[in-house]
Amino acid sequence: MLCFLGLSLGPLSLASEKEVVIVKNNWTSQIVLSEILSGIYKKHGIKSRFKKLPVDEQWGELSRGWSDVQVEVWEGTMADKFEKLTSEGKMLGAGTHDAKTREDWWYPLYVKELCPGLPDWKALKKCSSVFATSSSGGKGRYLGGPWEKPDKARVRALGLNFILERAKDSDGLWAALDKAFKKNKPILLFNWTPNWIEHKYKGEFVEFPEYDPKCETDPSWGVSKEWKYDCGNPKNGWLKKASSKRLKESFPCAHEILKRFNFKNEQIAKLAFEVDSNKKDVSKVAARWVKENKMIWENWIPSSCPAKGGKH
């Protein structure tokens, strides 16, 4: 019975040999870029479907060939897994976007008047009370996202008089930002680029001590001498793409298109802005981009790809 179940259930986990499986995560830019890639595939006769996955589950899917494409691999949060699996040959890198990434503490530009010395992180030592809320016990509040980050470790290592609160999702972050912005109230929160926020609000990242890998492993490395994580996140990080080995083997044209698929910060920010701020349907935003930017994406189709209807 066990052998029978293994034989019958095993293939159900595998992606269809006739379609490319594109990973969809839970942030807007990744979703809209996934939709754009699917639209380009469709124009070239390549069938695809989406599979919604949290980041921590996508690695097993890609390395086993159960999913095939990830259009956004962020250096700041995904480098370790990406580099481990690609170096082991379990999954493939598929090129790098022109966009540069950053993920860190951020504030609206008007906050500099309330906390002189920003963006230097040392200013936070002098004006933490500016960011206090009714529930922060007199300490400053930093509003983080739902994703696991070493923020508490950084607060301890740098001796910051702050507490950490977490928003349930990105919508919670932006709702808090919009509320503070309308009243010109100070707020310090997690943000990243590329992101639609930079298309709507003027602001800056806090400049913590420069990132170094030793910051995460050697307490004696930085300004603390006692605690790890006494630095900021990487600046000008890469934004890569990843694929399963199956994609290259079974869909060589789709793999080559993915390698050429390439966006800049301002392009990604504008696309996400249309969805999150202008409340437009993500599929319609993606379809419009494909329709209006044919001259761009046609250059991503290599001459080695067969004409529509041929083997991909």
Give the topology, please.
Blueprint: H1 2-9, E1 20-24, H2 28-43, E2 48-52, H3 55-64, E3 69-74, H4 75-87, E4 92-96, E5 102-108, H5 111-114, H6 123-126, E6 140-144, H7 151-158, E7 162-166, H8 170-183, E8 189-193, H9 197-200, E9 203-205, E10 239-243, H10 245-250, H11 252-260, H12 265-276, H13 282-292, H14 294-297
Parallel strand pairs: 1-2, 6-7
Antiparallel strand pairs: 3-10, 4-10, 5-8, 5-9
Helix pairs in contact: 2-12, 2-13
Q: How is this structure best described in words?
A:
- The chain is of the alpha/beta class and 312 residues long.
- It folds into two domains: 19-100 and 237-300, D-Maltodextrin-Binding Protein, domain 2; 102-216, 3-Layer(aba) Sandwich (D-Maltodextrin-Binding Protein, domain 2).
- Helix content is 39%, strand content 16%.
- The protein is built from 14 helices and ten strands.
- The protein has helices at 2-9, 28-43, 55-64, 75-87, 111-114, 123-126, 151-158, 170-183, 197-200, 245-250, 252-260, 265-276, 282-292, 294-297; strands at 20-24, 48-52, 69-74, 92-96, 102-108, 140-144, 162-166, 189-193, 203-205, 239-243.
- The strands form four sheets. It has a three-stranded antiparallel sheet with strand order 3-10-4, sandwiched between helices. Strands 8-5-9 form a three-stranded antiparallel sheet, covered by helices on one side. A two-stranded parallel ribbon has the order 1-2.
- Helix 2 (28-43) packs across helix 12 and helix 2 crosses helix 13.
- The longest helix is centred in the first third of the chain and has 16 residues, at 28-43.
- The chain is globular and about 65 Å long.
- Mean pLDDT is 92; it is low at 1-13.
